Amino acid sequence: MYDNKKKSGFVTLIGRPNVGKSTLMNQLIGQKIAITSNKPQTTRNRIQTVFTDERGQIIFLDTPGIHKAKNKLGKYMVSVAERTLKEVDIVLWLVEPSTFIGAGERHIAEQLAKVKTPVFLVINKIDMVKKGEILNFIEAYKNVLDFAEIIPVSALKGENTKELVKTIFSYLPNGPMYYDEDTITDQPERQIVAELIREKALRLLNEEIPHGIAVTIEEMKERISEDSSYNRHNPNDNTSIMDIHATIICEKDSHKGIVIGKGGAMLKNIGTQARREIENLLDCKVNLQLWVKVKKDWRDSDFFLRNYGYNENKNN
Question: Can you give the pTM of this predicted structure?
Answer without folding.
Answer: 0.63
